């Protein structure tokens, strides 16, 4: 098959980890007889510098026409002034909204060989296999914002339809996996969470009666996620809660550099990116961990291109590289890590 993939390297380590991932996709295409074309466009801080806005019209137009989008990272200290009217993160929020990508899938599956990198006790991590489904285009990140000299407000708003569609996506995923869904809210305090819980309960009862459902308050979920992570299968939650919980969940895997994500909507197109940020402290040093971006490319193959065997081959190659202790500096003992390109080469070698 042929696929047109838009590449958005972005800022910080984004260009490095994306550059390391494209040869992996090229190797997949060669091995399985596919043809992938890559078109690079600007987003985030680099787009502000070059075009005066974080999401240029040309980038969005290319994304609309693409079969899939691979993204690195956005942001950095250069653009971090909290009073700035134009910020890199606005580009990421805008492209998700424009493409209707409302469900962010974040798998958390610790690799046995990397358990030592996690601050969590290894016996708690064995057998952990979680997917967090984070609502992506609603909530406080997109609500009306106001600020004066003496106060500021951010509106958190959710509609029934927004909650229904993301819970429906999570329910379908849970049905394909182990049949257990945990819906996370703050229904003891927030009206949006009370709506969330009512809608989630109804959707799961009417459409997924075969899936076991539990509700967790977000503060207790933050505790249980680290103390008994094996208890969870699919977790669905609103935008801000999901953003926070998945960064916490990265500690289960040992590093943010191991966690991929897929931002999906009603169609096939999606944005695939590591969950970590632009890591400006190590940008340009060639030591960033590319595994999360490579695993995001595997999600791209699976969800947007429908290439399940190819996706599994990439995931197996990453696992094999980790089993061989091909660790970047975030996972390795001091002075023993491989560079970004070396980790990517290890994956390609194990693709065959």
TrEMBL record:
Family: Belongs to the isocitrate and isopropylmalate dehydrogenases family. LeuB type 1 subfamily.
Co-factor(s): Mn(2+); Mg(2+)
Protein name stated in the entry: 3-isopropylmalate dehydrogenase
Localization: Cytoplasm
EC number annotated for this UniProt entry: 1.1.1.85
Reaction(s) this enzyme catalyzes, per UniProt: (2R,3S)-3-isopropylmalate + NAD(+) = 4-methyl-2-oxopentanoate + CO2 + NADH
Annotated residues for binding of Mg(2+): 219, 243, 247
Coiled coil: none
Major site of localization recorded for this protein: cytoplasm
Source organism of this protein record: Luteimonas composti
Gene: leuB
């Amino acid at each position: 098959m042929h696929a047109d993939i838009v590449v958005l390297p972005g800022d910080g380590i984004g260009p490095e980890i994306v550059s390391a991932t494209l040869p992996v996709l090229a190797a997949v295409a060669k091995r399985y007889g596919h043809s992938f074309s890559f078109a690079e466009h600007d987003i985030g801080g680099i787009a502000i510098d070059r075009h005066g806005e974080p999401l240029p019209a040309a980038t969005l137009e290319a994304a609309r026409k693409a079969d899939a989008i691979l993204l690195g990272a956005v942001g950095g200290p250069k653009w971090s002034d909290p009073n700035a009217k134009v910020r890199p993160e606005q580009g990421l929020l805008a492209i998700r909204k424009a493409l209707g990508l409302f469900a962010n899938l974040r798998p958390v599956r610790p690799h046995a060989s990397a358990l030592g990198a996690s601050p969590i006790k290894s016996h708690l991590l064995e057998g952990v296999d979680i997917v967090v489904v984070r609502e992506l285009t609603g909530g406080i990140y997109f609500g009306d914002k106001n600020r004066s000299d003496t106060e500021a407000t951010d509106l958190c708003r959710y509609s029934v339809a927004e909650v229904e569609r993301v819970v429906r996506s999570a329910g379908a995923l849970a049905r394909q996996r182990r049949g257990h869904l945990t819906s996370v809210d703050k229904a003891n305090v927030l009206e949006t969470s009370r709506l969330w819980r009512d809608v989630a309960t109804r959707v799961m009862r009417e459409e997924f009666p075969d899936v076991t459902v539990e509700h967790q308050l977000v503060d207790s979920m933050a505790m249980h996620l680290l103390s008994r992570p094996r208890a969870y299968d699919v977790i669905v939650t609103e935008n801000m809660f999901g953003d926070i919980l998945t960064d916490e969940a990265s500690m289960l895997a040992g590093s943010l550099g191991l966690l991929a994500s897929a931002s999906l909507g009603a169609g096939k197109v999606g944005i695939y990116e590591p969950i970590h940020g632009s890591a400006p402290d190590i940008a340009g040093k060639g030591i960033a961990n590319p595994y999360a971006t490579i695993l995001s490319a595997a999600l791209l193959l699976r969800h947007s291109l429908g290439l399940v065997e190819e996706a599994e081959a990439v995931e197996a190659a990453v696992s094999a590289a980790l089993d061989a202790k091909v660790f970047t500096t975030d996972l390795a003992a001091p002075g023993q890590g491989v560079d970004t390109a070396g980790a990517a080469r290890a994956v390609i070698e194990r693709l065959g």
